[in-house]
Amino acid sequence: MDDFISRVHPELREGVITLPPLRLPDDLPAIRQSPPPPGGTPPEVRTTTRRILGADGNEMLIKIYEPAGREGRRLPALLWIHGGGYVLGHPDGDDGLCGEFVKNADCVVVSPDYRLAPEYPYPAALEDCYAALTWMANSTEEWNLDPARIAIGGASAGGGLAASLALLARDRGGPAVCFQMPLYPMIDDRNVTPSSREITYPGVWNRANNIAAWKLYLGDRAGVEISPYAAPSRATDLRGLPPAYTCVGQLDPFRDETLDYVARLAQAGVDVEFHLYPGGYHGFELAGADTGIGQRARSGYIDALARALSVE
Fold it and tell me: Which of 111, 156, 164, 195 is flagged as catalytic?
């Protein structure tokens, strides 16, 4: 434990010591009852909630964030998928971050309240996200969106779903995606990389929680042949995917699967920008939002989104 703390970036060290431990699956009911982090969207951002038809005919809530003073401007859009190990989370938890996307990338953000495991194992979450992406593509006139500038992104499990969605949209001939931003994505169910074994500290996302979360997400499929749409690290053909941006902390259990995925995207001819942050643990840029390294990481991907959605 002391070795892990000594490797954490000095700006993050004090904060990581105070993080409460999470033990899945035992702590799942209690964590789900926790209120979202304080914050909310800035006054320059208008938030709307709607219910749309999700996968399997279910009704799904989505949150829509847009500039308060749009004045009829046609804007690009981002489908933002929240994280939480496929078992936790709600769009409300990313209100502040989605507000930053809107302000800095001058875009509309749509965030779906997709179904969670274990009640709804794979492929429920992915199909809900695909339904949200399809809704966006079909709502470009209603919401004044630019159909040529629709991006997808998410962090952690949300990053895994973004990577899965990029594959699914390509293979189904679905809505065109101009850019993907799977941040420190949860994409490999096998847990065999060095980094997946290395991180065991109880206050951060670690090996034990990752193994438990994958079992909950895959349900009856755990231990049998796993689809690349469930675990994108298993995909063998990455050609034709949209340009990508991703980042990961050096002390994140997803470090090595992210590095491998980035390399294979590049080898497949997909333009990809990648940043590795020494001393960063899983989600450090959100937990350590006020630190210099946290601000750099967050600015890095917000700026990348703004560049990707800009009109050249």
Answer: 156
